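Issue: ligand-bound run for flavin-adenine dinucleotide - logging full I/O for the record.

Environment: standard queue, default settings, no custom constraints.

Inputs:
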Amino acid sequence: MTLHTSAIDRLCKRNVELSAFSTYGIGGSAHYLAMPETANDLAELLQECNKRGMPWYIFGMGSNILFPDEPKHDLVFISLKNLVDLRVSEGKWHVSSGTPMSLLSLMGLLGGTDLLDFTFLLPGCVGAGIYMNAKYNARQICDILDTVYYIDTTDPSLSVQSIPVSECLFAYKQSIFQQRPWIVVGADLNIPVSSEEQINTTSVLLTDWKTRGSHPSSLPSFFSFFLGEVHALAGKGIQTPQSMLDIIKYRTSKRHFDYPSCGSVFKNNYDYGVAVGSLVDQLNLKGTEYGGAIISPHHGNMILNQKHAKATDILYLMNLISESINNQFGFVPEPEIVLV
Ligand SMILES: Cc1cc2nc3c(=O)[nH]c(=O)nc-3n(C[C@H](O)[C@H](O)[C@H](O)COP(=O)(O)OP(=O)(O)OC[C@H]3O[C@@H](n4cnc5c(N)ncnc54)[C@H](O)[C@@H]3O)c2cc1C
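Outputs:
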């Protein structure tokens, strides 16, 4: 007789502190947390959750979400951070959703293209980057995609399907994946593959990330891992381009990796035409503290976890910013971070 272990028993850890899975370092104890390594395991897990009527929540590195202080009992948290795979098929790069976006910049560096530089030091995984259409300056994730692979969670077969980038409804911080119950599992990039050496070295970097870098969602270790890798490549004669040096300068000057945070809290309102960070500055709210949280003294659109903040502390400061902007400038800013 064969004993069948359920996917939930096989893949879920029990009673895990979510704070370790969020760059905010915030979140209470999850009763179920899974980190599937293959799309098949993910599909099996979803099937069982659906069968048992258990809700689930998909995430990546947790660099854009605020987990609750007290998660619901039956909610299954699923991080795709370990769904990491990188291969070349039919002359195209295929990356799976757990691949760190920042790794793509090193891949570009090895291949002699600057098209991926903007992903350098951009926290988070490719899957969420596609979901959020992550960007840096004028460059967005959608610029480098060819095809996206996803699981439609309403389709009972939960098989992997594909959609060309032209149909993904990408716009500023928007994509079709925010409108449909689809989970991104990977993508083909429209970036040229230059050499065997580029493929091999990128694979080694990914393996290093898997074994050394990927576990904590800690911003300092994320920063030191990728900074260390560009220094190592420079030691081998692959110079760090000015665009990447500028990113280091910008992100360190804004203290992006000094305190736990989730980056920008609100989306900019392009109709209004002034960045949220500048409006917060004009309102003299930078440096305002509540509980363990503080509005960054260096960047008005960031709220930092300064001293063991709770999710409720962050929410308090978000409401303060939102109401103050509405009173003074006449619009309610749309949150960029996702409240779970
Ligand atoms: C210091 C700092 C600086 C940042 N700077 C920038 C910046 O310059 N530009 C920028 O765009 N962002 C920035 N961010 C935000 C963050 O990097 C991006 O939003 C990134 O895409 C989040 O990736 P993640 O894996 O951490 O996603 P998570 O935070 O884990 O998830 C974010 C959302 O994506 C959904 N999701 C996750 N994976 C999938 C999937 N596979 N399929 C479908 N939905 C999914 C989740 O349900 C959630 O709603 C910054 C964050 C930090 C902490």
